[in-house]
Amino acid sequence: MDLIDMYFDQIEDAKQRRVPFIIPVGTIEYHAHHVSSGTDTMVVTGCLRELGKEKEIVVLPPIWYGVASYAVGGPETGTIHVDEDTHTQYVYCILKSLIWGGVKNIYLIPHHQTEAGALMPMTISCHKAAKKVTMEYMEATKGVGWWGSNDYQDYYENLGSGDDPFSYIKVIPLISKEAQIACGGFDHAGKWETSLMMGTYPDHVDLTRCKLNTEWFAQSAVEATAEIGRHMVNSVLDWLREAIV
To answer: Which residues contact 148 (CB under 8 A, 6 or more apart)?
Structure first.
């Protein structure tokens, strides 16, 4: 369910039951001529839309502007880049509100620059914000030296569980390294990402525009199909079912 559609009592109930609260983390970036500039965000929201049909999740409004970088093209291409430190602070503020508000099962899901599970500026930004919020929250609520206190002598037994404070906020890619293999491939505005868009938001793909593409990374987009897109969505869902608990 989308957070913006929920009433207060529904949100409180979801908090108490530790339903996953998920934030799509995206970018506005040039994706050649045939797919929309919101692709990196939309493939996340599209896959979460499908996951929400079978699993109870709370999807927060996406963070549309991200650490895009100008690796693909400059601002003249429509790419909107937010500096990493600024992005980290923005994500930090959102997470701080959620954690102090009682949400203890949060997922940040980026797609941009996550090939092979790489830690790139935007994912690093999310990790930094998450760890900062967690450390500050634990120190404020449990006191200085909280981890070293005897209250946490079972820390390692609880590692990775809901009782592990470092599991309150998790940063996971939309497509894990293993899921990328299962999907068949990973690219930027090429065969694979275009197919994934066809599997999530087909009305934001126009393959007739491929004739306008001149960049190497978009040349394989002509091979994209809805069938590949459905396969990719299913592979992503297999990964998300396992990762989001």
So the answer is: none
Q: Tell me how far the alpha carbon of residue 37 is from its chain's centroid.
A: 16
| Whole-prediction pTM | 0.96
Find out whether 22 and 180 touch, Cβ atoms under 8 Å.
no
Q: Looking at the domain that runs over 3-176+235-243, which CATH code has it been given?
A: 3.40.50.10310
Per-residue pLDDT reduced to its tens digit, 134-182: 999 999 999 999 999 999 999 998 888 888 999 999 999 999 999 999 9
Nearest to 177 by CA among 189, 190, 188, 186: 186
Helices (H) and strands (E) in the chain, counts: 7, 4
Closest CA to 217 of 90, 82, 96, 39: 39
Q: Which of 27, 26, 23 is nearest to 4 (CA)?
A: 23
**Burial (CB count <10 Å: 0-12, 13-18, 19+), residue 212:** exposed
What is residue 74's three-state secondary structure? coil
pLDDT in tens, 36-90: 999 999 999 999 999 999 999 999 999 999 999 999 999 999 999 999 999 999 9
The dihedral through the CA atoms of 60, 64, 66, 69 has a sign that is positive
Nearest-angstrom CA–CA distance, 65 and 50? 23
Rounded Cα distance between 132 and 104, Å, is 15
